[in-house]
């Protein structure tokens, strides 16, 4: 095991054992290095690495602290990972989303409070006629955020937030290039919300699967040789059409 990896492991073990809790300040660097049997340089590298993934918070002039360790904070680093990948790899993230999102939607159908369901319906009807692709995607992201939150599972909600936002380019491309994409999106969302409102988890799960699989299938076809995005420089749409209306 590399020295830095060993240092990361030892700090992680302190957190897992409860020696360091959320919000705690780490001991002074020389004291912690001696306690863990590490060089100060390897400890410093470990702290930098753990700060990058939001386990530690380095405050200049104050010290280093364990963060809240909340799922949404720790998983936000996943967005960076998604953004670094090319669009053929984004397909794999969409595949994961196709597995997780239907489960969250089914859970929302069983657990989402009535008031939250009513807010979800209001949001469903809030998209203006003639919305641009960017407006459609922002509206879509918020709808999915509310549903994931309604699952009642914070880890699942955070995972979906990380997977959903960074893949929004695929949804913009679809709205720009696929005829009827906006109408299809609206119809699928309405079916999902209806299933949640009527407390039908299996129906909600099915419609969520159809919805996410549609984006995935379109991107897979568009990235294939001869597809709409296969020859576009820098992964940009090969053509751009006027915004579609509702």
Keywords for this entry:
mainly alpha; Arc Repressor Mutant, subunit A; Four Helix Bundle (Hemerythrin (Met), subunit A); 2 domains; 12 helices; 2 strands; disordered C terminus; GntR_C; DNA-binding; transcription
Got a strand count? 2
Q: What is the arithmetic mean of pLDDT?
A: 81
Reported by name, the CATH topology of the largest domain is Four Helix Bundle (Hemerythrin (Met), subunit A)
Question: Which residues form runs of ≥5 with pLDDT under 50?
Answer: 231-246
Radius of gyration: 22 Å
The neighbouring-strand order within the major sheet is 1-2
Helix content: 55-70%
Word description of this protein:
The structure is a single chain. This protein is mainly alpha-helical. The protein has two domains: 67 residues, Orthogonal Bundle (Arc Repressor Mutant, subunit A), CATH 1.10.10.10; 162 residues, Four Helix Bundle (Hemerythrin (Met), subunit A) (Up-down Bundle). It is 66% helix and 3% strand. The protein has twelve helices and two strands. The chain has a two-stranded antiparallel sheet with strand order 1-2. Helix 8 crosses helix 10. The termini are far apart. The C terminus is likely disordered. Keywords: DNA-binding, Transcription, Transcription regulation.
């Amino acid at each position: 095991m590399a020295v830095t990896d060993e240092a990361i492991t030892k700090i992680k073990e302190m957190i897992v054992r409860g020696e360091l809790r959320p919000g705690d300040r780490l001991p002074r660097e020389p004291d912690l290095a001696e306690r863990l049997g590490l060089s100060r340089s390897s400890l410093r590298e470990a702290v930098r690495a753990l700060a990058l993934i939001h386990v530690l918070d380095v405050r200049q002039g104050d010290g280093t602290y364990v963060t809240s360790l909340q799922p949404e904070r720790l998983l936000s680093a996943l967005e960076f990972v998604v953004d670094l990948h090319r669009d053929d790899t984004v397909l794999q993230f969409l595949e994961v989303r196709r597995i997780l999102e239907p489960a969250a939607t089914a859970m929302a159908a069983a657990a989402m409070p009535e008031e939250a369901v009513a807010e979800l319906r209001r949001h469903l009807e809030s998209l203006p006629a003639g919305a641009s692709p960017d407006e459609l995607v922002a509206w879509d992201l918020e709808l999915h955020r509310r549903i994931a939150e309604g699952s009642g599972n914070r880890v699942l909600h955070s995972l979906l937030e990380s997977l959903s936002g960074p893949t929004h380019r695929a949804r913009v491309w679809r709205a720009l290039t696929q005829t009827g994409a906006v109408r299809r999106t609206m119809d699928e969302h309405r079916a999902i919300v209806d299933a949640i409102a009527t407390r039908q988890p299996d129906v909600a799960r099915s419609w969520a699967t159809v919805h996410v699989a549609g984006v995935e299938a379109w991107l897979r076809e568009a990235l294939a040789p001869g597809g709409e995005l296969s020859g576009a420089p820098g992964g940009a749409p090969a053509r751009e059409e006027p915004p579609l209306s509702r």
